[in-house]
Amino acid sequence: MRRHVRIGEIKYIGKESNSLEEVEAGLIHAAQNVYTEYPDRRRDEWKTKIRPAMKKVFISILERETSLSPRMLIDARTGRRRPHPPNQKLIVAALRKLGVV
Known about the structure:
Blueprint: E1 12-13, H1 20-25, E2 37-38, H2 45-54, H3 59-66, H4 70-78, H5 85-97
Antiparallel strand pairs: 1-2
Helix pairs in contact: 2-5
């Protein structure tokens, strides 16, 4: 029977990925030592999952759950600015709590 595959995210990795066969064989213990990831800010989780999820929730609810200012939440939701990493974590935690992400 065929299995359905869903792509969670796309990651660019360097040429060092040729050594992944050695990781599978057990010659190299950690895959992190083998390849380098090159993040693509156009396709990161914030833009592809978190911002669309923020649009499904009222700003007042996000404000209550995160204690962040409405202006910052509106700017983050529209993409005008990206919150600092601690604030991003607050927003993601709130969205998970609300069951949106």
